[in-house]
Amino acid sequence: MTDLSRFAITQKWPAQHPERLQLYSLPTPNGVKVSIFLEETGLAYEPHLVDFATNDQMTPEFISLNPNNKIPAILDPNGPGGQPLALFESGAILIYLADKTGQLLPAEPAARYETIQWLMFQIGGIGPMFGQLGFFHKFAGKDYDDKRPRDRYVTESKRLLNVLNQRLKGRDWLMGSEYTIADIATFPWVGGLVGFYGAGDLVGIEEFPEVTRVLAAFQARPAVVRGLNIPARPAA
Ligand SMILES: N[C@@H](CCC(=O)N[C@@H](CS)C(=O)NCC(=O)O)C(=O)O
After folding, report:
1. What is the distance in A from the centroid of ligand 1 to the CA of 12?
2. pLDDT digits (tens, 9 = 90+) for 220-230
3. d(CA 44, CA 22)
4. Ligand 1 pocket, 89 CB below 6 A?
């Protein structure tokens, strides 16, 4: 029987199935990357809801696993050497899980690094920029009279969308015919920009037809449909 009791996070989120990978998350663009990966690959896991409405991410139990107080985070009871491994940062988690399962990250070295390059492009560019645009367009920042911060993020988001659009010309996915963790990292953010943030018109999303084509293909995948709602949010 796997014992995860030395991990304080299990005191707040007890493991019903301690032999399975434990996922601590919420369905946000960063959170769903991991649930989508897990749904795509079929690796057994147990999802736990980290509810921002009650500031779960700020609790000592959560911070014991991720001192950066952000989702997603995982605890794999069967990590390297058969020992438990706790991990945060969605990019690190995706690479770890791809290596563990041998899926969704090419094995050939050049293609592997190219995939990681596009993954990092999302982590360092698309995520932070689209997230700031969401703040200035949908949340508290929309009430600021000075529109220069919002416009700065609109310009940068459009520039990033153009890079994506160029890359996707003649390709099914970011790495061509192979669907990878780079797509799983990127398209929840594009979907969130257009959907949740309602910023499609603001960034002129129709100017990026390759991006919208691949977004539609991504959102049609059954594992994506499922992953976008895991862990389920509490009823409103
Ligand atoms: N670089 C991190 C970003 C994670 C992140 O920003 N998560 C957000 C949700 S999308 C969060 O947990 N926010 C909670 C908070 O800021 O209190 C990753 O990729 O995992």
Report:
1. 20
2. 999 999 999 99
3. 9
4. yes
Burial class (CB in 10 A: 0-12, 13-18, 19+), 113: exposed
Cα separation of 97 and 44, whole Å? Answer: 12
Question: Which residue type, as a one-letter code, is found at position 120?
Answer: M
Question: Ligand 1, atom 12: nearest CA belongs to which residue?
Answer: 70
Distance 24 CA to ligand 1 centre (A): 12
- 82-121, pLDDT tens digit by residue? 999 999 999 999 999 999 999 999 999 999 999 999 999 9
Is the distance from the beta carbon of residue 29 to the nearest atom of ligand 1 less than 6 Å?
A: yes
Q: How far is CA 120 from CA 127, 141, 153, 161, in A?
A: 10, 27, 19, 15
Q: Report whether pLDDT(236) > 80.
A: no
Ligand 1 neighbour 94 (Cβ under 6 A): no
Q: Using CA atoms, how far apart are residues 95 and 206, in angstroms rounded to an integer?
A: 32
Cβ neighbours of residue 98 closer than 8 Å, sequence gap 6 or more: 37, 104, 105, 180, 181
Q: Is 186 in the pocket of ligand 1 (CB under 6 A)?
A: no
pLDDT at 1 over 80: no
